Amino acid sequence: MPATLFELSPVHLPIRGEHALFPVRRIYCVGRNYADHAREMGHDPALEQPFFFSKPAYAAVALPDSVPYPSQTTDLQHEVELVVALHDGGRNLDAARARACIYGYGVGLDLTRRDLQRAARDKGQPWDMGKGFDFSAPVSALVPAAECGHPRSGRIELAVNGRLRQQGDLSDMILDVEALLVRLSALVELKAGDLLFTGTPAGVSALQPGDRIEASVAGVGRLDLMIGPSLE
After folding, report:
1. Neighbours of 155 (CB within 10 A)
2. 218 phi, psi to nearest 5 deg
3. Which residues form the Fumarylacetoacetase-like C-terminal domain (predicted)?
Protein backbone atom coordinates (compact mmCIF):
# COMPACT_ATOMS: atom_id res chain seq x y z
CA MET A 1 0.00 0.00 0.00
CA PRO A 2 1.19 3.59 -0.61
CA ALA A 3 3.00 4.96 2.47
CA THR A 4 0.99 8.17 2.49
CA LEU A 5 -2.29 6.24 2.57
CA PHE A 6 -1.05 4.11 5.45
CA GLU A 7 -0.03 7.19 7.44
CA LEU A 8 -3.31 9.03 6.86
CA SER A 9 -5.72 6.16 7.43
CA PRO A 10 -7.49 6.21 10.81
CA VAL A 11 -8.05 2.42 10.83
CA HIS A 12 -5.93 -0.54 9.74
CA LEU A 13 -7.28 -4.06 9.30
CA PRO A 14 -5.24 -7.22 9.85
CA ILE A 15 -4.52 -9.50 6.90
CA ARG A 16 -4.71 -13.21 7.59
CA GLY A 17 -1.28 -14.82 7.61
CA GLU A 18 0.61 -11.54 7.15
CA HIS A 19 2.25 -8.92 9.36
CA ALA A 20 1.17 -6.11 7.04
CA LEU A 21 -2.01 -4.16 7.74
CA PHE A 22 -4.65 -2.86 5.33
CA PRO A 23 -5.25 0.90 5.69
CA VAL A 24 -8.90 1.90 5.33
CA ARG A 25 -9.66 4.94 3.19
CA ARG A 26 -13.44 5.00 2.80
CA ILE A 27 -16.33 2.65 3.56
CA TYR A 28 -19.10 2.24 1.00
CA CYS A 29 -22.20 0.16 1.73
CA VAL A 30 -25.00 -1.27 -0.36
CA GLY A 31 -28.65 -1.20 0.63
CA ARG A 32 -31.18 -3.92 -0.32
CA ASN A 33 -28.85 -6.11 -2.37
CA TYR A 34 -30.62 -9.32 -1.30
CA ALA A 35 -34.25 -9.64 -2.41
CA ASP A 36 -35.39 -11.35 0.80
CA HIS A 37 -33.97 -8.53 2.92
CA ALA A 38 -35.52 -5.87 0.69
CA ARG A 39 -38.90 -7.53 1.17
CA GLU A 40 -38.53 -7.82 4.96
CA MET A 41 -37.83 -4.08 5.02
CA GLY A 42 -41.05 -3.42 3.11
CA HIS A 43 -39.65 -2.87 -0.39
CA ASP A 44 -40.22 -4.65 -3.71
CA PRO A 45 -36.85 -5.69 -5.23
CA ALA A 46 -38.50 -5.90 -8.65
CA LEU A 47 -39.19 -2.16 -8.51
CA GLU A 48 -36.10 -0.81 -6.73
CA GLN A 49 -32.43 -1.36 -7.47
CA PRO A 50 -29.79 -1.61 -4.72
CA PHE A 51 -28.24 1.73 -3.77
CA PHE A 52 -25.13 3.06 -2.02
CA PHE A 53 -24.47 4.89 1.23
CA SER A 54 -21.35 5.47 3.30
CA LYS A 55 -19.95 5.05 6.77
CA PRO A 56 -16.93 7.03 8.00
CA ALA A 57 -13.63 5.17 8.05
CA TYR A 58 -13.56 5.59 11.83
CA ALA A 59 -16.67 3.37 12.06
CA ALA A 60 -14.52 0.34 11.16
CA VAL A 61 -13.35 -1.80 14.06
CA ALA A 62 -10.69 -4.41 13.37
CA LEU A 63 -11.34 -7.87 14.85
CA PRO A 64 -13.02 -6.59 18.02
CA ASP A 65 -13.74 -8.82 21.01
CA SER A 66 -16.69 -6.54 21.72
CA VAL A 67 -18.29 -3.28 20.62
CA PRO A 68 -20.38 -1.04 22.89
CA TYR A 69 -24.14 -0.78 22.58
CA PRO A 70 -24.55 2.68 21.01
CA SER A 71 -26.25 5.65 22.57
CA GLN A 72 -29.66 7.06 21.65
CA THR A 73 -31.22 3.81 20.43
CA THR A 74 -33.42 1.00 21.69
CA ASP A 75 -33.25 -0.96 18.42
CA LEU A 76 -29.68 -1.86 17.46
CA GLN A 77 -29.79 -4.42 14.64
CA HIS A 78 -27.23 -6.72 13.00
CA GLU A 79 -26.51 -7.11 9.27
CA VAL A 80 -23.82 -9.62 8.21
CA GLU A 81 -22.05 -8.78 4.95
CA LEU A 82 -19.26 -9.83 2.60
CA VAL A 83 -16.67 -7.03 2.65
CA VAL A 84 -14.55 -6.25 -0.41
CA ALA A 85 -11.18 -4.49 0.04
CA LEU A 86 -9.55 -2.64 -2.87
CA HIS A 87 -5.85 -2.19 -3.63
CA ASP A 88 -6.51 -0.13 -6.76
CA GLY A 89 -9.33 1.87 -8.23
CA GLY A 90 -10.44 4.30 -10.89
CA ARG A 91 -13.51 5.81 -12.51
CA ASN A 92 -16.00 4.15 -14.85
CA LEU A 93 -14.53 0.68 -14.43
CA ASP A 94 -15.63 -2.28 -16.49
CA ALA A 95 -16.17 -5.66 -14.82
CA ALA A 96 -12.69 -7.01 -15.61
CA ARG A 97 -10.95 -3.90 -14.31
CA ALA A 98 -13.19 -3.89 -11.23
CA ARG A 99 -12.14 -7.44 -10.35
CA ALA A 100 -8.47 -6.53 -10.85
CA CYS A 101 -8.86 -3.78 -8.22
CA ILE A 102 -9.90 -6.25 -5.50
CA TYR A 103 -7.26 -7.01 -2.89
CA GLY A 104 -9.30 -9.41 -0.80
CA TYR A 105 -12.37 -10.12 1.28
CA GLY A 106 -13.60 -10.10 4.86
CA VAL A 107 -16.67 -10.59 7.01
CA GLY A 108 -18.33 -7.42 8.27
CA LEU A 109 -21.27 -6.22 10.33
CA ASP A 110 -23.30 -3.22 9.30
CA LEU A 111 -24.65 -2.38 12.75
CA THR A 112 -27.70 -0.16 12.50
CA ARG A 113 -29.64 2.04 14.90
CA ARG A 114 -32.86 1.02 13.17
CA ASP A 115 -35.12 3.37 15.10
CA LEU A 116 -32.97 6.36 14.15
CA GLN A 117 -32.74 5.19 10.55
CA ARG A 118 -36.52 4.80 10.26
CA ALA A 119 -37.20 8.17 11.88
CA ALA A 120 -34.81 9.87 9.45
CA ARG A 121 -36.31 8.01 6.48
CA ASP A 122 -39.85 9.02 7.44
CA LYS A 123 -38.78 12.67 7.57
CA GLY A 124 -36.85 12.49 4.29
CA GLN A 125 -33.59 13.06 6.16
CA PRO A 126 -30.18 11.36 5.69
CA TRP A 127 -29.47 8.03 7.41
CA ASP A 128 -26.06 9.05 8.76
CA MET A 129 -26.82 8.78 12.47
CA GLY A 130 -28.63 5.48 11.98
CA LYS A 131 -25.76 3.90 10.05
CA GLY A 132 -22.51 5.82 10.51
CA PHE A 133 -22.04 5.91 14.28
CA ASP A 134 -18.91 4.90 16.21
CA PHE A 135 -18.04 1.17 16.15
CA SER A 136 -20.78 0.47 13.57
CA ALA A 137 -18.59 -1.47 11.10
CA PRO A 138 -16.72 -4.36 12.78
CA VAL A 139 -14.60 -6.30 10.26
CA SER A 140 -12.73 -9.61 10.38
CA ALA A 141 -9.17 -10.11 9.21
CA LEU A 142 -8.98 -9.74 5.44
CA VAL A 143 -8.14 -12.69 3.21
CA PRO A 144 -6.23 -11.86 0.00
CA ALA A 145 -7.99 -12.88 -3.21
CA ALA A 146 -4.78 -14.68 -4.14
CA GLU A 147 -5.62 -17.06 -1.29
CA CYS A 148 -9.43 -17.33 -1.36
CA GLY A 149 -10.20 -16.50 -4.97
CA HIS A 150 -13.28 -14.38 -5.73
CA PRO A 151 -16.21 -16.03 -3.91
CA ARG A 152 -19.48 -15.44 -5.72
CA SER A 153 -21.43 -18.25 -4.08
CA GLY A 154 -21.35 -19.79 -0.62
CA ARG A 155 -23.16 -19.53 2.67
CA ILE A 156 -23.37 -16.25 4.56
CA GLU A 157 -24.87 -16.43 8.04
CA LEU A 158 -25.11 -14.91 11.50
CA ALA A 159 -26.07 -16.41 14.86
CA VAL A 160 -26.80 -14.62 18.13
CA ASN A 161 -26.20 -16.55 21.36
CA GLY A 162 -25.96 -19.75 19.33
CA ARG A 163 -29.28 -19.28 17.50
CA LEU A 164 -29.19 -18.76 13.73
CA ARG A 165 -30.82 -15.52 12.65
CA GLN A 166 -29.49 -14.74 9.18
CA GLN A 167 -28.63 -17.18 6.42
CA GLY A 168 -28.29 -16.86 2.68
CA ASP A 169 -25.92 -17.40 -0.21
CA LEU A 170 -23.61 -14.93 -1.91
CA SER A 171 -25.20 -15.97 -5.20
CA ASP A 172 -28.46 -14.40 -3.94
CA MET A 173 -27.05 -10.88 -4.40
CA ILE A 174 -29.12 -8.84 -6.83
CA LEU A 175 -25.93 -7.16 -8.09
CA ASP A 176 -22.71 -9.16 -7.79
CA VAL A 177 -19.45 -7.66 -6.60
CA GLU A 178 -18.19 -6.62 -10.04
CA ALA A 179 -21.51 -5.02 -10.95
CA LEU A 180 -21.50 -3.08 -7.68
CA LEU A 181 -17.98 -1.78 -8.28
CA VAL A 182 -18.83 -0.82 -11.86
CA ARG A 183 -21.84 1.20 -10.69
CA LEU A 184 -20.03 2.74 -7.74
CA SER A 185 -17.06 3.80 -9.90
CA ALA A 186 -19.47 5.75 -12.11
CA LEU A 187 -20.42 7.82 -9.04
CA VAL A 188 -17.05 8.25 -7.29
CA GLU A 189 -13.41 7.53 -8.01
CA LEU A 190 -12.47 4.33 -6.19
CA LYS A 191 -9.00 4.10 -4.66
CA ALA A 192 -6.74 1.75 -2.76
CA GLY A 193 -7.96 1.35 0.81
CA ASP A 194 -11.66 1.50 -0.01
CA LEU A 195 -14.01 -1.07 1.53
CA LEU A 196 -17.35 -2.14 0.08
CA PHE A 197 -19.98 -3.78 2.32
CA THR A 198 -22.06 -5.70 -0.22
CA GLY A 199 -25.46 -6.08 1.48
CA THR A 200 -27.16 -8.49 3.86
CA PRO A 201 -29.63 -11.38 3.61
CA ALA A 202 -32.94 -11.48 5.51
CA GLY A 203 -33.22 -12.04 9.23
CA VAL A 204 -31.99 -8.74 10.64
CA SER A 205 -33.19 -8.23 14.20
CA ALA A 206 -32.45 -6.52 17.49
CA LEU A 207 -29.41 -6.95 19.71
CA GLN A 208 -28.98 -6.41 23.45
CA PRO A 209 -25.92 -5.80 25.63
CA GLY A 210 -24.31 -9.15 26.39
CA ASP A 211 -25.35 -10.78 23.11
CA ARG A 212 -22.69 -12.93 21.44
CA ILE A 213 -22.53 -12.68 17.63
CA GLU A 214 -21.04 -15.32 15.34
CA ALA A 215 -20.90 -14.22 11.69
CA SER A 216 -19.33 -16.08 8.78
CA VAL A 217 -18.94 -16.18 5.01
CA ALA A 218 -17.96 -19.51 3.44
CA GLY A 219 -14.45 -19.48 2.01
CA VAL A 220 -13.66 -16.12 3.61
CA GLY A 221 -13.78 -16.37 7.39
CA ARG A 222 -15.73 -15.46 10.47
CA LEU A 223 -16.20 -12.65 12.95
CA ASP A 224 -17.13 -13.37 16.57
CA LEU A 225 -17.83 -10.58 19.05
CA MET A 226 -19.99 -9.49 21.95
CA ILE A 227 -22.23 -6.45 22.32
CA GLY A 228 -20.90 -4.61 25.33
CA PRO A 229 -22.60 -2.25 27.80
CA SER A 230 -24.39 0.84 26.60
CA LEU A 231 -22.39 4.03 26.07
CA GLU A 232 -25.13 6.00 27.83
Report:
1. 13
2. -60, 135
3. 27-223
Burial group, residue 211, by CB count within 10 angstroms (0-12, 13-18, 19+): middle
Per DSSP (E only), the strands in the chain are 12-14, 21-23, 27-31, 51-55, 60-62, 66-69, 76-77, 80-86, 102-109, 112-113, 137-139, 143-144, 155-160, 163-169, 195-197, 212-217, 221-230
Measured at the alpha carbon of residue 129, what is the angle toward residues 132 and 207, in degrees to the nearest 5?
75
d(CA 13, CA 47): 37
- Amino acid (1-letter code) at residue 118: R
pLDDT of 146 reads 96
Query: Is the pLDDT at 12 greater than 70, yes or no?
Result: yes
Q: Output the CA torsion sign for 22, 23, 27, 28.
A: negative
Domain 3-230 has CATH 2.70.150.10: no
- Structure pTM? 0.94
SS3 label, residue 192: coil
Region 37-63 average pLDDT:
87
Predicted confidence (pLDDT) at residue 221 exceeds the cutoff of 80: yes
Reduced to 3 states, what is the DSSP secondary structure of residue 208? coil
* CA dist 77 → 82, 91, 112, 122, 145 (Å): 17, 33, 5, 18, 29
* Residue 208: Cβ within 10 Å count: 12
